[in-house]
Amino acid sequence: MPDSIFPELSYGVWIFIGAGLGALWLGSCKLLARGKLKAERQLWGIGLIGAAVIYLCFAMIWSGNPEDYIVELIGIGVYTSLACAGLYINPFFLGAGWGVHVAWDVGVHADAFTAEASYVPYWYGPACIGFDILSGVVLMCWELERQPPHDKRML
Questions:
Q1: At CA 52, angle to CA 66 and CA 145, rounded to 5?
Q2: Which of the two residues, 151 and 34, has the higher pLDDT score?
Q3: Checking CA distances to 61, which of 4, 78, 145, 152 falls within 20 to 30 Å?
Q4: Could you tell me if 29 and 36 are in contact, meaning their C-beta atoms sit under 8 angstroms apart?
């Protein structure tokens, strides 16, 4: 397990820190896109791919096991596919991709929550969960807001 330069905080604190960073990231995407919806979605997609690439970086720095590289490359493929689907098919795939990334944090990297974690720093999993949940929920809400209202006569 890599040594951490961060203080030993509880998982709950790291989840809130991650959510705060997620809020900063979402706001930054809005500012950088300058009102251009396509650019905003592209930034969200790049972030989703980046979230997967970070795990590959951890594996390359602290693992040395080629099997870990393969697992992380599969993750990059999955999240790149979701980002592309969000850009070219339906933007809800972007929000769903962030929501599904929580499963990656908890399922594939469950060892990050133990004392014997392999190559993911102990704080990263909880922080990523907070970031991912906030990002997924907010992106889904923003996309729902943009949807035209349904014809009430059809109800």
A1: 160
A2: 34
A3: 78
A4: no
Q: Is the whole-model pTM more than 0.90?
A: no
Which two structure tokens, joined as six digits, stand for 69?
A: 């590289």
- How far apart are alpha carbons 115 and 113 in whole angstroms? 7
Question: Using CB atoms within 10 A of its CB, is residue 121 exposed (0-12), middle (13-18) or buried (19+)?
Answer: middle
Query: Comparing C-alpha atoms, which of 12, 27, 15, 54 is closest to residue 138?
Result: 27
Q: Could you give the CA distance from residue 48 to residue 82 in angstroms, rounded to a whole number?
A: 8
Q: What is the pLDDT of residues 2-31, one digit of tens each?
A: 555 566 778 889 899 999 999 999 999 999
Instruction: Tell me the residue type at 147.
Output: Q
pLDDT at 151 over 70: no
State mean pLDDT over 51-55: 95
DSSP 70-127: HHHHHHHHHHHHHHHHHHHT-THHHHHHHHHHHHIIIIITGGGGSTT-SSS-TTHHHH
